[in-house]
Amino acid sequence: MERHQAPIGVFGGTFDPIHFGHLRTGYELLHLLRLEEVRYLPCRLPPHRGVPVASAQARLEMVRAAVAGQPGLVVDDRELHRDGPSYSVDTLRDLRQDFPDRSLCLIVGMDAFLGFPDWSRWQEIFELAHVVVARRPGWTAPDMGELEAVLEQRQTTEVEDLHGAVSGRIYIHAVTQLEISSTAIRQMVSAGQEPRFLMPDETCEIIKRSGCYSGRITTEDTNR
Ligand code: ATP
Question: Ligand 1 in contact with 17 (CB < 6 A)?
Fold first, then answer.
């Protein structure tokens, strides 16, 4: 019999910069869902917000430094090689070509999941991958609107379902909540403070050395 291949976790984000909220979420899901690996994919141009403050190269370098030597956590830079906005559906289609028979689990925070109906060709995502939603403990569902019917049809609480099919299910899990955001980190650095203990030391060092958040951060940057 063919050996069962564990699912691959796909964690996209701007990572401007990456922090322990992103890392802890990936780590917990890696083990809980028995994933082969969690791939962090920094996007080139996020479709739903302004241009990132740090360059693609600096963001990639920070993600690489953050996961270096961490078993099961890896970097995938494919979105940085594609022109135009980084739509998840295109990324998943690309991954599906590389892994035709493998279960793929797109990992998103609850905030991102609630914005799904605004994502490009979002319904196609379920044909390409499962969706794993990281939610805050104690969080209760707001009005899900369009998502309600999708949840009813696709939600599962069984990890096995993510192994048994290659796409199509939604799994919601409460990860340890760390109230850290990239926006707050950029503001902190811009104000001359160090983001120590909010991210790995290696990532902190890159921020310091490159000065990527040292300029004045505009209101537009801080509000988004
Ligand atoms: P920003 O403050 O610039 O909006 P962010 O901290 O939300 O950034 P992103 O790179 O936009 O980081 O997020 C990538 C993914 O990580 C999204 O799915 C988001 O929901 C999730 N995420 C962000 N912060 C956390 C956190 N503290 N804990 C768990 N997941 C998070």
Answer: no
The atom number, within ligand 1, closest to the CA of 184 reads 2
Q: Is 151 in the pocket of ligand 1 (CB under 6 A)?
A: no
- Take residue 102 and report the two structure tokens written for it: 């493998």
Indicate if ligand 1 lies below 6 Å from the C-beta of 10.
no
CA of 209 to the centre of ligand 1 (A): 23
Give the chain's length: 224
Counting ligand 1 atoms within 8 A of each CB, the residue from 182, 183, 223 with the most, and so the one to mutate, is 182
3-class secondary structure, 170 = strand
Tokens (6 digits) for 172: 């919601």
Residues 41, 91 contacting (CB under 8 angstroms): yes
pTM exceeding the 0.90 threshold for the entire prediction: yes
pLDDT per residue as tens digits for the range 110-145: 888 988 999 989 999 999 999 999 987 666 666 778
Cross-sheet strand order for the sheet of 8-13: 73-75, 37-42, 8-13, 104-109, 130-135, 170-174, 155-156
Ligand 1 centroid to Cα of residue 160, in Å, is 27
Q: Which domains does the chain have, with CATH numbers?
A: 8-210 (3.40.50.620)
Low-confidence ranges of the chain (pLDDT < 50): 1-2, 219-220, 222-224
Q: Measured from the CB, is residue 122 less than 6 Å from ligand 1?
A: no
Amino acid at 49: R
Report the C-alpha gap between 183 and 44 in whole angstroms. 17
